[in-house]
Write a structure and sequence with these properties.
9 helices; 264 residues; Undecaprenyl pyrophosphate synthetase; 6 strands; binds farnesyl diphosphate
Length: 264
Amino acid sequence: MPMSLTSDPAVVAPATGHAPKSLPQHVAIVMDGNGRWAERRGKPRNYGHRMGASAVRATVEHCLRRGIPHLTLFAFSSENWARPAGEVSALMGLFLKALDREVGQLDQHGVRLDFIGDADAFSEPLRERMRHAVELTRQNTAIRVNVAVNYGGRWDLAAACRRLAERAVRGELDPASIDISAVAAEVALADQPEPDLFIRSGGDQRISNFLLWQLAYTELVFTETLWPDFGAADLEHAFSEYAARERRFGLTGEQVRRAAQGAP
Ligand code: FPP
């Protein structure tokens, strides 16, 4: 199914709803519920994953339309390798096909694609497609779409610690200088703003080892919608929830309101 991403500038600007300021600049999504969606229809779980790929397309399309600059999708966790072998290989096949089929369209619509996670575990053809997608779309600026594959928040933090320790051992870094900003610069997505809004489909209310460091101050929204049914309406609902939240980042509500009014 070809992607029908809009390139009409008239619809790239938010057409309805909130002022751009109240829209999240970075949305991170745990796409859960493919298996249950299929099982409820008496179909194999892999059918749910295939339909989940269509929901990915619809989500990217709607974020583009709304001018959301960063989107991060959890496609495969470090823990998903423990699923039945047939499901894992079907997912790998799906990622490969999705890259073959969609990358050209994504590129035409200004999508910059990146991957976070340990790609070493993937087959060479898949890694080759991933490298090609990153290279092809590197200059695009309409939206950055980060796909987390073989990703885990603990893996991310451990890898960041290891890199810092290696620099310390080489004498390039004083361990006493390792602070929050030093760690923040090493974790995945360091060159992008931290997610403003986290959405999890499928009804469960947990983070499941997604961006543990990066989600420290992110607003969390959970929906019962199973991922293959997820679309523009669910995103708009999450944006409305987000717009209604008061983000305090550890301050008092009064301090936040005074700062918003420009008070010193
Ligand atoms: C979780 O649902 C979903 C996954 C482990 C895979 C996510 C993959 C896709 C959305 C398909 C394609 C993605 C891309 C980026 C092309 P689940 O299987 O855990 O569902 P369940 O909780 O109902 O069992």
